[in-house]
Structure formats: structure tokens, C-alpha cells
Amino acid sequence: MEQDNISKFGCGECQRDFETQEALGMHNSAKHQIGQESKKINPKVVWGVVGIIGLIAFAGYLIYFNNGSLTSAVVLSESTGLGSSGDIQKIILSYKNSNYYPNDITVKAGIPVEITLDNSVGGCFRSFVIQNLGVREYSNNPSEKIKFIPTQKGTFEFACGMGMGTGTINVV
After folding, report:
1. Who contacts 171 (Cβ-Cβ below 8 Å, separation ≥6)?
2. Are 89 and 95 in contact (CB under 8 A)?
3. Three-state DSSP class for 100?
4. Model-level pTM?
5. Which are the contacts of 149, defined by CB distance < 8 A and separation ≥ 6?
6. Residue 46 phi, psi dihedral angles, 5° rounding
7. Are strands 127-130 and 135-138 parallel, antiparallel or unpaired?
8. Neighbouring-strand partners of residue 167
9. How far apart, in Å, do the first and last CA atoms of the chain sit?
10. Which of 4, 72, 106, 152 could form a disulfide with 170 if both were Cys (CB 3.0 to 4.6 A apart)?
11. Are 171 and 132 in contact (CB under 8 A)?
């Protein structure tokens, strides 16, 4: 009896024997996908990408709304000279109990108003809006004043740029 000297290559998955390494490789790639990368997308990767995109979008929002003025319809310019006469109504707002303080202000119509947001004011509260008076300003620090001239009498609401901190300004 003659001994078979041919080496057999066995599949570790289904226990079949093959004559050549090449045959075993073809079998594994066709039946068991051994040695091939999976085509499935890992859900952790998907959520990671979504999270990164969300963080980038949020950072863009913060950068957009925290750099400089958001424009104001009735902002005083240095060329008017109104500030030199001393007829400016100066108001200092702070942050207290999760709101502006004071949050009820009275000013006179037709006289320039200068609002300072002190160092206790931060985040979206530094974006100051009086919608019905056309005031929409961002103050990076207390040296940047919010200036406007109230032209119409009445009671107007003011708020931070996100509407979280609120108050009223009474123009008499």
C-alpha cells in the first residue's frame, strides 16, 4: 500500500480538507469571509461622526454670535458729539439670580442711553436685545458699551440673544 504524502490544508471553520493552500484561501473567502474586511458600519463610528459634526456646528454658532457686534439700528456714533455734553443715561447691568439685575429700568426718551454689562454677565447674556427699539448688540467686556437713543415712549422688553435673561425698559 502506498502512503499518501500529499499535505492536506484544513478549514478551521467547517473542518473540510483541501489539497492546496490556494484552494483553502478561495474556500475561506467565498464561504467564511476570513481575511476580508467587514463591510458593516460600526454604529459607534456613526455616532462619533454625528457627535463631532454637532460639536463643530455648536462651536460655529458660538463663534458667530460671540464675535463683535450683531448690529444695532440706532447706535450712537462718535461723530454725533452727544457724549461730550454729559447728557447720557448710564446703566450698569449685572447677573444675579439667573437674570439681568436690575431687570426693570426707566430712561427718558430722546436722551442717549449707555448700558454697561459688568464682569458678572457672561455667555449669551452678553448679547443684549431690545427688539422693539432696534437694539441688538454684543458686548465682549465692560469696556464695550451698548449705546442707543430711545425715540419712542413706552415699556419695552429686553433680553439676551437667546431670550433667557429678560427685563423691561420703561421709556418716559
Report:
1. 106, 107, 108, 109, 133, 150, 152, 153, 154, 155, 156
2. no
3. strand
4. 0.51
5. 74, 76, 82, 110, 111, 112, 113
6. -60, -50
7. antiparallel
8. 158
9. 119
10. 106
11. no
